Amino acid sequence: QEGIGLDAVNDAFLLESSVYRLLRQYCGKQPYYLHLLELFLQTGYQTELGQTLDLITAPISQVDLSRFSEQRYKAIVKYKTAFYSFYLPVAAAMYMAGINSKEEHENAKAILLEMGEFFQIQDDYLDCYGDPAVTGKVGTDIQDNKCSWLVVECLRRVTPEQRQILEENYGCKEPEKVAKVKELYKALGMEAAFREYEESSYRRLRELIGKHAQRLPQDIFLDLAQKIYKRQK
Q1: Closest Cα partner for 121 from 143, 141, 91, 145?
Q2: Could you write out the DSSP letters of every residue in 24-57?
Q3: What percent of the chain has pLDDT over 70?
Q4: C-alpha span between 77 and 56 (Å, rounded)
Q5: Which CATH superfamily is domain 31-228 in?
Q6: Which PANTHER family does the record match to this protein (predicted)?
Q7: With DSSP H G I counted as helix, E B as strand and the rest as coil, what are the percentages for the chain, rounded to 5?
Q8: Hey, which end of the chain has fewer CB within 10 Å, N or C?
Q9: What is the pLDDT of residues 127-167, one digit of tens each?
C-alpha cells in the first residue's frame, strides 16, 4: 500500500512479538505458561509452513494444475488453517484447565484437525457458490489460481477435453473465463459432490468425537461441529 511499503513487514513482526509479551504479562506466573508458549510457537511455525506450501503450489501468474493434488491440498489445509483456527484455541483452554496429558491432547488434535479441514472445504465451496450478501465477500479463488477443494475434486473427474478447458481458463481474471470454469464445475456436479462430502464428513466428525473424546468434554466438540455444519458464511 502506498505510504506503507515494506514497513508492513516490521509491523507484522511487532504484532507477533506482542503475542509473547501478552502471554508473559498475563500468564507468566501460571503453571501452564510454558505449555502455552510452546503451543503458540509451534502453531506459528506450522501456519507459516502451510502458507509457504500454499504460495509455492499456486504462484501468481503461473498456472500449473499438476500441483493441485489431494495430498498437497490436505497438507495446506492442515498446516495453514486447522492448527491455528481449531487446535490452538482448544489446546490452550485445555492447558489452562490443567489438562496436560499428551494422550488427551493427541485425541483433541485428531478431532480438531479433521474439523479444520471440514471448515476449509466449506470455505472453498462458499467462495464459489456462497451468496456475497451473506458471506460478506465476492469469491476469487478461480481468478487467484487457488488450490481449492473444488478444483482438486474437479481434476479427479475431468476428461482430457475438460482438463484442457480448465488449463485454459483457471487462474484468469476475465469474467468469461471464470464463467467457463464455473460451467465445468456445474457439468461435473460439484455442488452435489460437496453436499455428499459435507454429510459424510459430519458423520465422521461425530464418530471421531465418540472415539477420541471419551475423557474430554464431548459437548464442546459436538457444539463446534454443529455450529459449522451447513454454515452459509
Answers
A1: 141
A2: HHHHTTSTTHHHHHHHHHHHHHHHHHHHHHHHHH
A3: 100
A4: 14
A5: Farnesyl Diphosphate Synthase (1.10.600.10)
A6: FARNESYL PYROPHOSPHATE SYNTHASE, FARNESYL-PYROPHOSPHATE SYNTHETASE
A7: 75, 0, 25
A8: N
A9: 999 999 999 999 999 999 999 999 999 999 999 999 999 99
